[in-house]
């Protein structure tokens, strides 16, 4: 499909709410409690000081410790490579990672002061900011692949599923890792752009590790998987049937590092140092595939054999404002939030 993202959004009519099955949304009701939780944490923590970057800054050349909330996923590899290669230390920083299970948990930790930086998706950050949770994106991290043949996040199904074209997804039941999250939004956007009646699609929550079994058992028509679970399905004889993000555009923005607005206001030098180190780390990861494959098993439970064969994220330091702006528009178009921020508002000034 066309890579003209700005024109693509204007051609997609808003979804009809009439007769809609409520099992796959209202997404606004699902998302709001997590955002409110994060905002509450920010209010509670507003008078509390941390013991990380803000306290160490100005210590006569001493290394500053930064706490980062991260995920046990392949696309976090760039940060770990930066630690291994000494890029953060060269910028005067020591990274203390805390592995969490989701973006909402990380954002809550950012505004409560538990973490100085957090590894989150643009959509998660946009949902938070739309609910007045004071976070913004500092740097880019990774993007999706270029097609269904190399994308590391995709819909997978059993062989012979009959899901051969986008139109075949009408009336299907799809498993996604979180209702109202990145997967649901971008699947809807990509299929909508292909003229599919997305109101006929039903979403149920299936965590990434459970996708291979759910597909094999026929509990879902297809499941949204991320590596290494795509490789697991392929090893079991399944197939990739659709890659929504790379259908929207090759190397579509996916992950980023964010911080709270309060931390940014109080730690300008640390922000600059982190940005330099993270961008170096991302570019190193992009240019050194073998190093990425070697480091993934050191901080995840991914088997080294799988790490050698799995599809890898596309690492990029580019903040693609046009594509990020499009994603923010999808949040409104599919009723995830009432008023989404622009890319300019989401990216730290």
Quickly list its features.
five-stranded mixed β-sheet, D-Maltodextrin-Binding Protein, domain 2, six-stranded mixed β-sheet, 349 residues, 17 helices, alpha/beta, disordered N terminus
Walk me through what this model shows:
This protein is an alpha/beta fold and 349 residues long. The chain has two domains: 29-144 and 251-346, 3-Layer(aba) Sandwich (D-Maltodextrin-Binding Protein, domain 2), CATH 3.40.190.10; 148-248, D-Maltodextrin-Binding Protein, domain 2 (3-Layer(aba) Sandwich), CATH 3.40.190.10. The chain has helices at 5-10, 27-45, 53-56, 77-85, 87-90, 103-112, 122-130, 182-193, 211-217, 229-235, 244-248, 261-266, 268-287, 289-299, 304-309, 321-333, 343-346; strands at 64-70, 93-99, 117-121, 135-143, 153-157, 173-176, 202-205, 222-226, 239-242, 253-260, 314-315. The relative contact order is 0.20.
């Amino acid at each position: 499909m066309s890579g003209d993202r700005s024109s693509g959004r204007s051609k997609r009519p808003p979804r009809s709410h009439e007769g809609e099955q409520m099992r796959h949304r209202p997404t606004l009701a699902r998302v709001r409690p997590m955002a409110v939780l994060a905002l509450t944490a920010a209010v509670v923590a507003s008078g509390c000081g941390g013991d990380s970057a803000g306290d160490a800054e100005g210590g006569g050349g001493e290394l500053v410790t930064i706490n980062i909330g991260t995920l046990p996923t392949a696309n976090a590899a760039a940060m770990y490579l930066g630690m291994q290669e000494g890029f953060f230390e060269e910028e005067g920083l020591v990274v203390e990672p805390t592995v969490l299970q989701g973006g909402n948990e990380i954002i809550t930790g950012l505004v409560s002061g538990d973490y100085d930086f957090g590894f989150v998706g643009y959509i998660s950050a946009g949902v938070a900011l739309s609910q007045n949770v004071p976070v913004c994106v500092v740097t880019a991290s990774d993007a999706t692949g270029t097609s269904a043949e190399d994308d590391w996040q995709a819909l997978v199904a059993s062989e012979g599923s009959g899901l051969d074209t986008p139109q075949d997804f009408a009336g299907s039941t799809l498993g996604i890792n979180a209702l109202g999250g990145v997967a649901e939004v971008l699947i809807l956007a990509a299929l909508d752009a292909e003229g599919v009646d997305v109101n006929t699609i039903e979403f149920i929550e299936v965590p990434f590790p459970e996708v291979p079994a759910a597909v094999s058992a026929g509990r879902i028509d297809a499941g949204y998987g991320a590596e290494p679970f795509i490789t697991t399905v392929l090893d079991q004889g399944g197939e990739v049937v659709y890659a929504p993000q790379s259908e929207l555009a090759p190397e579509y923005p996916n992950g980023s590092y964010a911080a709270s607005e309060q931390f940014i206001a109080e730690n300008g030098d640390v922000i600059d140092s982190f940005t330099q180190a993270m961008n170096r780390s991302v570019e190193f990861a992009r240019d050194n595939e073998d190093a990425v494959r070697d480091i993934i098993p050191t901080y995840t439970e991914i088997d080294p054999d799988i790490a050698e064969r799995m599809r890898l994220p596309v690492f990029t330091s580019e903040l693609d404002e046009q594509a990020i702006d499009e994603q923010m528009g999808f949040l409104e178009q599919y009723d995830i939030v009432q008023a989404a921020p622009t890319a300019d508002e989401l990216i730290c000034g």
